[in-house]
């Protein structure tokens, strides 16, 4: 179990770093487009496609890392009323039985779509640049897979009592009480 947890958390961290680096690629592409368009009167064919593909990639590459770091927004005004252990079990069960399967299914659909796009050589039909779309779809599938795996890891932490719903470790919570 430790190997699974460590591997999933390393994948989340790695994809988070890739997502952060991808931001610089997006900035460079947009700066190039602005200079080409306004300084030289020669807009690119690819800037719009790159911007939506990289934005989507950044979002999904960072999703698992954000979950790992408790950076997602929580709506917990009801669950705060319960004792700590009930909150932990509630979060663990929801993550394990609801969120992980949902994002696992999303991963399956995205992976199938990426494979079909790769096998058929699918291109973006409405773009004058007409880029291949399978790399973008593959990044979506990888990001969703990491997100689903991170949900399982977080569920294990909650159910074992290692993690508290406020994002702190259970040991910290014990020291503070």
Automatic annotation (TrEMBL):
It holds the Pfam family DctQ. The chain crosses the membrane at residues 12-32, 44-67, 88-109, 129-153. Residues 26-157 form the Tripartite ATP-independent periplasmic transporters DctQ component domain. It is a multi-pass membrane protein. It is found in: Cell inner membrane. GO terms for cellular component: plasma membrane. The keyword Signal does not apply. The keyword Transmembrane applies. Keywords: Cell inner membrane, Cell membrane, Membrane, Transmembrane, Transmembrane helix, Transport. Signal peptide: none annotated. GO terms for molecular function: transmembrane transporter activity. One of its GO terms (biological process) is C4-dicarboxylate transport. InterPro entries: DctQ (IPR055348), TRAP_DctQ (IPR007387). It comes from the Bacteria. The complex comprises the extracytoplasmic solute receptor protein and the two transmembrane proteins. Part of the tripartite ATP-independent periplasmic (TRAP) transport system. Belongs to the TRAP transporter small permease family. This is TRAP transporter small permease protein.
